[in-house]
Amino acid sequence: MSKRRNISKQNQKNIAKQRISELFIMAEKSAHSGRLNLANRYVEIARRISMKTLVPIPKKFKRSYCKHCYRYMLPGESCTVRISRNKIITHCFYCKKIMRFPIK
């Protein structure tokens, strides 16, 4: 029988943060190369890791997927991005929902 490795909670969270950022980088690369299905899968895996380890997804990556259908958003391919009245307005083509983010 093999021994179980004890990994501290802080170590688990650091590993989770690294994997989440790597997955979002891979999602961006695959979306730019035309494989949106693969990018959506990477976002799904990153969200599961985030929920399981209770690690929040960084802000720069949070805005790259739809909050309603959880698909990777590539402007022009799967969403539109507009700026109006000090807000960034993003419209998802798949679920037809609108997200608004304030501009500081």
Helix coverage percent of residues?
Answer: 40-55%
Strand content: 15-25%
> Kindly, what is the distance between the CA atoms of the first and last residues, rounded to a whole number of angstroms?
56 Å
In the CATH classification, which architecture applies?
Up-down Bundle
Describe the protein.
It is a single chain. With 104 residues, this protein is α+β, with helices and mostly antiparallel strands. It has one domain (9-102): Up-down Bundle (Single alpha-helices involved in coiled-coils or other helix-helix interfaces). The chain is 44% helix and 16% strand. The protein has helices at residues 9-32, 36-53, 59-62; strands at 79-84, 87-92, 98-102. Strands 1-2-3 form a 3-stranded antiparallel beta sheet, with no helix packed on it. A hairpin with a 2-residue loop joins strand 1 and strand 2 (87-92). Helix 1 (9-32) packs antiparallel against helix 2. The protein is elongated, with a radius of gyration of 16 Å. The model has no long low-confidence stretch (mean pLDDT 93).
